[in-house]
Amino acid sequence: LAYVPVAQNQRHTVFAPANDPDYQFLQPAFPILDQLCRQQPGNVLAYINDGHYIRYHTSCSVLANNFLLTPQHFEKVAEVNRLLRLSPEEFAQSDHDIDYLLVRFVDLPAIVQPGAEGIELESVFSSNPPLFVGLNLNSEMPQGLQLIAESVSDDQLNMPYVRIFRVLRQPNSQVE
C-alpha cells in the first residue's frame, strides 16, 4: 500500500533519457564521434558530464568526465575548464592534447521547447564557456579547426545544438 501513491503519480510520467534533457540532442553525435575515433583515435574536449556519455558510447578518449576519484581526475577537470575559458582563436593557438571538440550550448534545448518563451538567449550565452559560445556563433572558424558535423535546431533560432570539430595540427606543433 505504501507504493500506491508513487505508482499512481508516476505511471504516466515521461522521463528524459539518461535522466538528462540534453541527452536526446547529444545522442546523434556519438556514432559520428565513434567513427572518427575508430579511424583516427584521439581525445575529445567536451563538458565533463558529456565526457561520461562519450566514453560510454564511443571509442574516443576524453580529457575528463564526471567520474572523479583521484587528484589527477580533478586536475583534468581544471584543465578542461581552462581550455573552455579560451576564445576559439586562443584555443587554436594553445598547447593542448585535443583532437576533437564536442561543442554545444547548455540550456539551448530548453529554449526551443514549447512554452519556453521567457528564456533569454543572453542567459544561455552567459552560462556557457567562451570557447563554445564562439564556436557556436561564428560561421568562420579559426585556422586549425575543421567543422565535421552539426545538428541545427529547426525553429526560429536556427542555432546548432551540437557541433563536432577536428583539431588540425601543423606537423611541427604536435604535442608529444
Structure described in brief:
The protein has helices at 4-10, 23-26, 29-39, 48-57, 71-84, 88-93, 108-112, 121-126, 130-137, and strands spanning 43-45, 61-62, 100-104, 145-152, 160-167. The protein is of the alpha/beta class. A 5-stranded mixed beta sheet has the order 2-1-3-5-4, with helices on both faces.
What does this protein structure show overall?
With 176 residues, the protein is an alpha/beta fold. It is 40% helix and 15% strand. The chain is built from nine helices and five strands. Strands 2-1-3-5-4 form a five-stranded mixed beta sheet, with helices on both faces. It is globular, with a radius of gyration of 18 Å. The relative contact order is 0.15.
* Proportion of residues in extended strands: 5-15%
Number of alpha- plus pi-helical segments: 9
Q: Element order, helices and strands?
A: HHHEHEHHEHHHEE
The biggest sheet, with number of strands, parallel, antiparallel or mixed sense and barrel status, is: 5 strands, mixed
Mean pLDDT: 78
Q: Spans of 5+ residues with little confidence (pLDDT < 50)?
A: 171-176
Q: How many individual β-strands?
A: 5
The shape is globular
Order of strands in the sheet with most strands: 2-1-3-5-4
Provide tags for this entry.
176 residues, alpha/beta, five-stranded mixed β-sheet, 15% strand, globular
What's the SSE blueprint?
Elements: H1 4-10, H2 23-26, H3 29-39, E1 43-45, H4 48-57, E2 61-62, H5 71-84, H6 88-93, E3 100-104, H7 108-112, H8 121-126, H9 130-137, E4 145-152, E5 160-167
Parallel strand pairs: 1-2, 1-3
Antiparallel strand pairs: 3-5, 4-5
